[in-house]
Amino acid sequence: MATLVRSIPDYQSKATTQTVATSRLWHAYTLVFAAACVMIGVYWDISWHMSIGRDTFWTPAHLLIQAGGLIAGISSGYVALETTFAGSEAERQASVSFWGFRAPLGAWLSIWGCGAMLTSAPFDNWWHNAYGLDVRIISPPHAVLAIGIFAIVVGAVLLTLAQQNRADEQTRRQLAVVLALTGGFLVMNFALFLTEYSERRMMHSATFYEVTAAAFPLALAAMGRAIKLRWAATSAAACFTGLMLVLMWVIELFPATPKLGPIYQHITHMVTLSFPLLVIVPAFFFDLVLHRFDGRLATLPLSAILGVVFVVTFLAAQWPFASFLIHNPLAQGRLFNANNFVYWMNPKYEALTRRFDPPEPGSWPLAAHLVIAMAIATLTSALGLMRGRWMTRVQR
Amino acid sequence: MRRLSVVALSLAVAMVASAHIGSPNVLFDGNAGPYPVRVIVRPPEVVPGLAEVIVRVNATDAQRVLIRPVFWRTGLKGAPAGDEMRRVAGQDRVYTGQLWLMAYGSLSVYVTVSGARGSGTAIVPVASFATGRLPLSPALSGILIVLGALLIAGLLTIVRAAVGESLVPPGEPFDPVKRRHANVVTAIAAPVLALIIFGGARWWRAEDAGYQRNMYGSPAVDPTVTVDATHRTLRLAVHDTAKFQAIYAPVTPDHGKMMHLFLMRVPQMDAFAHLHPTQTDSLVFTGEVPALPAGHYRLFGDMTLENGLSLTVTNTLDLPDAPGAVSPSDSDDVWIVTPSATRVAAGAVASLGGGFTMSWKGDAAPLTARQLTDLHFVVRDAKGEVAKLQPYMGMAAHAVVVRDDGSVFIHLHPMGTVATVSQEVFALRDRGDTTSNGRLRAGALPGAMSGMSMSGDLTFPYEFPKPGRYRIWVQVKPNAQVLTGAFDVDVR
């Protein structure tokens, strides 16, 4: 409460802090639930395509994604209407204006995300009809869908953040845990979208470290700064890792056979995504660096340290772990899931996945690419830090 | 010696795909074990995509019809369990279903009928290639533009709120300085967003171009005619044109021939030949052109690969005069010069020569495109009796259907549009009569098949793909000689 009073000096004259701080917590939790539905649905859907292949709209995985989107959109729409037309003064003051309507920023982002998801539906349908039922994650309509999902997750983050930034100490702790979970969703969002660039066989290649450097530091730095937990980035990464592992270990227990052909892998159970990337390692070191230097160094030197730390620690963890996944027979069981071949993977490609991709002919040495990866990670860390700073200031 | 070389221009055709030109639907009349069936497969224009399958079982005791997509590369062991077809309401014997064709290449739809007399399977080969691309309709474009505009405007509003009002503690005023700052950031965000959208549009265009590069491109054929004192030799060099390879297996004989070549003089359509050039290299075919008059000809060459894929190549050529009498290089070569064709109508009769006639027994009503049509002909002898036919290359009859502009071509048999050799290839594949790299063992296939009905009452199931004027040549062998009937039909 004291923190709140310090940060909002004029506020007490207009409404009780307690009322605003905890108002509509249900909405924050609903958005987190919606984001969880979407993220679990997306994972399940990818697994569905890897195992069964059938792509009707009415698969449970699709329904979970759509339900998540609708829960986010409808609950936020309700909050917007209620705040605009029947909201208390305190609620109206904890909201922002949007085309004459009022709602918290996170609600608007969720509504927008729901709109983007809905827009992607006819676009995606046309895309499949025009270019075939693609089995690719990265396509323009899927990008629109991913941006919509991203917006819903960020909406959940912002709504919870705004509550956290206004809350008393006890509520703040509670919300910080929820925020760590939403931070995990953000990391998962990046990880899922980068699936095609982070296959096991690529984990000794320069591109893998450049691509991961372009994504994860952004989420880790932002979360590390914004969530009011001592091990904020680590917690978010732990939520990501935990969720991915639970989904991997649970979904792969269910029997499944492909409904489409040609079938090269005669699977009997659901195929799940590979063992999650060890993002938790750089996340831990991000927290260490932030504990020591955040507030003492300017954004640029701090992000340079984070950039180097990300690449070095991620490389130190993922490189040997990738060797284990590729070469060690122990990795091929259900625990590490290194035999997760999609039903359409032909034996030639399977053979390619049992060794690391050789460097592109004529490409620069790996060390040079790692320096580039550090530069990229510096940039994304800087963006993450700026975003984190902004997130700590969000009040509505 | 006089030497002329003619390399003709490639024909531009609207739709191309495998063993036909512009006529993608597959029809099969035959048996699934003890059950007579008629199967129609309408492949999707894009792959992966949904093929529509219709099966009519001409038996009362069928209980269940199952369809499975079987790809050549993986055979039956790599095929999914299959989908049960739905019986069409009010039609006891007609079943419908859909199948996902997920990969490019040679595929067969396995139709398994089960009933009181056990079960049996018919193999219906289908070429699985992307042949078209759906344009964005104006209505959908409009919807997407409106939704996109709303999303962009909404995002800019959110950006403005994110850097402005959302940072103001509840109850504090959103003062003009903060408001101006928010406006400036939004003004900067707008071109950044425009840049992202521009990048997205470029990505879309690149994806579209990539898709079009991988669409089926008919293999091309380069014809060369060489004339000397005693020969008029046609040499055909076949090659792929598309980025992906359609010809990725060796050519295998169909009805005992490596290529079935059809020549027709255009635009008159008065000279027609069905020839069988010899394979002189893997994709080079050479043969003598028989006594056809000089002129401008359109050619269609049918060949089947060892993976069961049937392909048609097409081009035009200018045929010079023959230097003298030329003899065909294959005993089954047939050609005909007729100034006119019989127009299809109720009771229309074409004289075949030798006292034989061929009459149209199909629908009296005008024929309609995109509907199943039985091209029904009856061959009669001089006494008016239905003639007994000898097999011509293993078949009771061969029919060639060509649209007058050359945009549609198909080589039909009474069993439909499928090549029997393709069915054989799949049957052999399943029995394991192939080597490890997928090639057929030499001699694994019989030279010619028989067993068709040899009655002169003939039906060719077909679906005209589009309206227009078509020429149909029907070839039968009622005595030792192959005779050809020519018919013209207008399709609405």
Characterization of this structure:
The complex is a heterodimer of chains A (396) and B (492). Chain A has 396 residues and is mostly helical. Chain A has helices at residues 2-7, 17-22, 25-51, 60-86, 89-93, 105-131, 140-166, 169-193, 206-226, 232-251, 280-293, 299-327, 347-352, 366-393; strands at residues 96-98, 101-103. Chain A has a two-stranded antiparallel ribbon. The radius of gyration of chain A is 22 Å and the shape is globular. Chain A starts with a helix and ends with a helix. Residues 1-19 of chain A have low confidence and may be disordered. Chain B is an alpha+beta fold and 492 residues long. Chain B contains three helices and 28 strands. In chain B, strands 12, 13, 14, 17, 18 and 19 form a six-stranded antiparallel beta sheet that branches. In chain B, strands 1-2-3-7-6 form a five-stranded antiparallel beta sheet, with no helix packed on it. In chain B, strand 6 and strand 7 form a beta hairpin. The longest helix of chain B is centred in the middle third of the chain and has 38 residues, at 176-213. Chains A and B meet through strand 1, helix 6 and helix 7 of A and strand 4, helix 1 and helix 2 of B.
Class per helix and strand makeup of chain B: alpha+beta
User: What is the gyration radius of chain A calculated from CA atoms?
Assistant: 22 Å
Poorly predicted runs of 5 or more residues of chain A:
1-19
**Total number of β-strand segments of chain A?**
2
- Number of helix segments of chain B? 3
Short description:
Chain A has helices spanning 2-7, 17-22, 25-51, 60-86, 89-93, 105-131, 140-166, 169-193, 206-226, 232-251, 280-293, 299-327, 347-352, 366-393, and strands at 96-98, 101-103. Chain A is mostly helical.
Describe how the helices and strands are arranged:
The complex is a heterodimer of chains A (396) and B (492).
Chain A: H1 2-7, H2 17-22, H3 25-51, H4 60-86, H5 89-93, E1 96-98, E2 101-103, H6 105-131, H7 140-166, H8 169-193, H9 206-226, H10 232-251, H11 280-293, H12 299-327, H13 347-352, H14 366-393
Helix pairs in contact in A: 3-4, 3-7, 3-8, 4-6, 6-7, 7-8, 8-9, 8-10, 9-10, 9-11, 9-12, 9-14, 10-11, 11-12, 12-14
Chain B: E1 26-32, E2 35-42, E3 49-57, E4 62-71, E5 83-84, E6 86-87, E7 94-101, E8 105-115, E9 118-128, H1 138-163, H2 176-213, E10 220-227, E11 232-239, E12 251-252, E13 260-265, E14 271-275, E15 278-281, E16 284-288, E17 295-305, E18 310-319, E19 334-337, E20 342-343, E21 349-353, E22 356-360, E23 372-380, E24 397-403, E25 409-412, H3 420-431, E26 457-463, E27 468-476, E28 483-491
Parallel strand pairs in B: 20-28
Antiparallel strand pairs in B: 1-2, 2-3, 3-7, 4-5, 4-8, 6-7, 8-9, 10-11, 11-16, 12-17, 13-14, 13-17, 14-19, 15-16, 17-18, 21-22, 22-23, 23-26, 24-25, 24-27, 27-28
Helix pairs in contact in B: 1-2
